[in-house]
Amino acid sequence: MNNSNRYMGKLIDAKLLPKDDDGYTCCRWCNGPVKPPKRTMCSPECVHELSLRTNGNYLRNCVYKRDKGICAICNIDTKQTAKKILLLEGEEKEECLKEYSISLKRKIWMKKHGGGLWDADHIIAVKDGGGLCGLDNLRTLCIKCHKNETKILLTKSKKE
C-alpha cells in the first residue's frame, strides 16, 4: 500500500487470502499465520492496526480516547467548548461560533467526542506520505487550528 494515499476499496474475501506453507490463512495485516478459531487476523493488535486504516469512526474513537478532545496546538478543550456553545442562543451563539471559526451549519452535540468540534489531523500530510498511518501520525486539532494548518499546507503546496 502506498503511504501517500488513503485506504481505498474493500478487503478481499477471507477465502481468497493467501495461505502459508502449513496451510494457515495469512493475516490481513502482518501476513503471519492465522490459527483457528480466528479467520483473517492473527491478533487483536493486527485488528487494531488495520481498523485504524480502514474505519474512520474507529480511528476517531482512538484519537479521542488518547487526546480527550484537547487541541494539540492551542490546548482548547473541545468538549467544554461544545457545552458552552450549546448553552448560548442567538447572536451570542453566532459570535462564539465565529470566534472559534465554526460554521453555523456544523452539528454540535453534548455527549460524545468533544461535541464534534475537533478533527483528527495527519501530522505528516497524506500527500507527503502520511497516509495509511497509525495513531503516531495523528493529532487532535480544534476546527480553528485545523483550518489554519490546512491553509498553511495549501500555501506550501502552491509554492512547490
From TrEMBL:
Pfam families: HNH. Keywords: Hydrolase. CDD domains: HNHc. One of its GO terms (molecular function) is hydrolase activity. GO terms for cellular component: nuclear replication fork. Residues 98-147 form the HNH nuclease domain. Coiled coil: none annotated. GO terms for biological process: DNA repair; replication fork processing. Gene3D superfamilies: 1.10.30.50. InterPro entries: HNH, HNH_nuc. PANTHER family: DNA ANNEALING HELICASE AND ENDONUCLEASE ZRANB3 FAMILY MEMBER (PTHR45766), SWI_SNF-RELATED MATRIX-ASSOCIATED ACTIN-DEPENDENT REGULATOR OF CHROMATIN SUBFAMILY A-LIKE PROTEIN 1 (PTHR45766:SF6). This is HNH nuclease domain-containing protein.
